[in-house]
Amino acid sequence: MSNKDDKKTRMYIYVADVVAVAWNKDRGMLLKRLRGKKSRQKLADEIAAKGGECSHQNLKKLEYGESESVSTKVLEAVCAALDISLSDFLSTVEVTN
């Protein structure tokens, strides 16, 4: 097999066109680290205050990597409450085939 066959194709897409983001334990640990000492309930309250929806129970599932995906709407609300952009939370969205 040559190196040419090993190459992956990169395609960039607009986040507005993405309905959900695949989730894993690494992203959950990042969310927990960004939350810091703030309680999940406090973060959920801040999300609600900014017009978003994400319960403290859902935050726990995300932090423990128990969710397979998260909607971009929820993730944007979480990021807004953490005062970071979605692009700061996610590295470049990469689709491989």
TrEMBL record:
Superkingdom, natural source: Bacteria
Domain HTH cro/C1-type: 55-89
Protein name: Helix-turn-helix domain-containing protein
Source organism: Mojavia pulchra JT2-VF2
Gene Ontology molecular functions: DNA binding
Coiled coil: none
